[in-house]
């Protein structure tokens, strides 16, 4: 083997082939896609949890308002809108009788949209007759 041939053989052994580079890029691209998709899901979950937390606060506020009223609320259903975090929340309260005549059951549901089927938050509490 000549010196030139020996030098050429040494050069080929040091580098990567085009096929190896393409395979490596494909593996990196697939990995990056998975990371991007995971980050997107995490952002969606964070937004959903923020919305549910705010709805829960609205429901708890409404239940507390009814518990603090001096008059005992009548049984029935009421609807209204509360404002929190620069947004409107639609609440529904249901007050029902219980076997104890001095206690009423209160259920508050909160939706982000008035037409939404499922509530984002639901709180159940009991109201005692004021003395």
Number of domains: 1
Helices and strands: which structural class? alpha+beta
Strand order of the largest sheet: 1-2-3-4
Percentage of residues in strands: 25-35%
Explain what this protein looks like in three dimensions:
There is one protein chain. With 131 residues, the protein is of the alpha+beta class. The protein has one domain: Pantoate--beta-alanine Ligase, Chain: A,domain 2, CATH 3.30.1300. The protein is built from 2 helices and 4 strands; from the N terminus they run ααββββ. Strand 1 and strand 2 form a beta hairpin. The mean pLDDT is 90.
Indicate the topology.
Blueprint: H1 3-14, H2 18-68, E1 76-83, E2 88-97, E3 103-111, E4 121-128
Short description:
The chain has helices at 3-14, 18-68; strands at 76-83, 88-97, 103-111, 121-128. With 131 residues, it is of the alpha+beta class.
Which keywords apply here?
131 residues, 27% strand, alpha+beta, 2 helices, Pantoate--beta-alanine Ligase, Chain: A,domain 2, 4-stranded antiparallel sheet, single chain, 48% helix
